[in-house]
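Changelog note: in this version the structure field was regenerated for every chain. One regenerated record is shown below for reference.
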Amino acid sequence: MKIMFDINKIIRPNIKNLKPYSSARDEFKGDASVYLDANENAFGSPLSQNYNRYPDPMAYDVKMELSKIKGVPARNIFVGNGSDEAIDILFRSFCNPGIDNVIIVPPTYGMYEVSANINDVQLKRVNLTEDYQLNLEGIAEAIDKNTKLIFICSPNNPTGNSINREDIETILANFEGIVVIDEAYINYSRQKSFIQELTEYANLVVLQTLSKAWGLAALRVGMAYASEEIIEVFNRVKPPYNINEASQKLALEALKNVKQVNDWIKEILKERDTLVLALKNFDFVIDIYPSDANFILVKTINADGIYQYLTQQGIIVRNRNKVELCEGCLRITVGTPEENQALINSLKNFKND
């Protein structure tokens, strides 16, 4: 039997009663010939393109384009300053500092812990199993009356694997708080997105980003997909103009090039397979874990030594040796064919002293 989710039971009282800031662009929607309402510089910008006017506070055009691509109504979409803004808003909206707690499943994306610490929210860790899947029994034992959020990254960072869908559905059906599924790498995965389950689970929040497959990391545009009532909370708490005009325009332009992104995804997956085969030839490589992302987690006999050596060669990978359950591991992003070959060529000269 599925537990009924009630947002009023978990939202912070001050957020429930919060009257959001009303910006000039909230109070007037539409077009006009003269704008004298927002104390902007009417003479323009010292740039080739004018940025003197405040942007759309709700990034409506971006949401509409995302709606077409994802098949989700715009009212179920929040656009944030990277998905990190959505993570922070979840803490500020639903977790009472010093009282509530959240659950994470390490090894996982480090920003969940940082946001918990910033917001003075207790963090409960329930480590993944040795095959990097959910410990359902451990999660069930960790949940108490003050547990508000559970974060699940799938495909997971830094391990690269997708989390078993049935296990996630079990948590969604039995947890009274919000389950946050971070799908930053979903474009590379063989599993379908949980966006399709939004109508099934009222307590579901799906995070995605334009930083990975879409190649827009510098623009800082992330998305949260959720029920209309949860999105309404996001919009109430966010800063008035959280996505700048330049990012909105460029994101909108990029979202019209789905074919280009899909072509890149195919090439990256092909390069990932080629990279895995090449790395298996080195005797200092112990294991390469299955990946549904644009990176691979490689277990080695000397992660620190290999990392330092590659750095000296001008090649930077991510050393995950000190991360629990990732001891001896390097996380390697799939690059261009030339970059991947440069990595392999450099490793051929590595000597494990």
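Spot check on this record: Residues 258-279 form the longest helix (22 residues). The chain has two domains: 7-27+55-256, 259-347.
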